[in-house]
Amino acid sequence: MPRAAPDAAQAALTKELRREAGQWLKAARETTGITQAELAERVGLRYYTFVSQVESGLGRVPIDLQAAWAAALGQEAQAFAKHLLGYYEPELFRLLFGNAARRAGSAKA
Fold it and tell me: What distance in Å separates the CA atoms of residue 42 and residue 8, rounded to the nearest whole number?
């Protein structure tokens, strides 16, 4: 069955979750003590502006780069990916991990 078009409320929630994910990623990067340019280099990106876009909520970390981002930020890849899933795909996160699982908080969620 095809997906229904997102309504305005869903679009606003998606935008807010992307913004929160970006804030979390920025905090993780700053805690690690690296710049956007250094993170981009470590994960194999040509331009640091992509990191800026992700941190501002305009983009998302591609699935095939999540392990590299986790390593660059000093985090365990599975926990990192699970944490991002809570922001990027909250309904899938709920289906996989239940309502009791926390999306926000540490990457160990």
Answer: 37
